[in-house]
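Weekly modeling sync, notes
Attendees: S.R. (lead), two postdocs, one rotation student

Agenda item 3: backlog of single-chain predictions. S.R. asked that every request posted to the team notebook include the full sequence so nobody has to chase files. The rotation student volunteered to paste the first one in as an example of the format we agreed on. Action items at the bottom.

Example entry:
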Amino acid sequence: MFSLGKIQNYWEIPIVKKIQVELQACAITLEEKALLLAAEVKESGAWLNALPSHNLGTLLDNQSSE
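Predicted structure, as returned to the notebook:
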């Protein structure tokens, strides 16, 4: 039996891949192409799990949050 996550992936993956192809076709500069390729890497969102720490330099100042 399929879990809901697998069923959702079954439907989402072709749509996501189609959007990726369309975005890559619209990318004109090498920088745009590099940004799109970098965003596709599994670990590209790892920074979202970083804990705010002044000692590590991961604490945002008031201007950064605007």
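Discussion: group reviewed the output briefly. The mean pLDDT is 85.
Action items: rotation student to repeat for the remaining queue; S.R. to check formatting next week.
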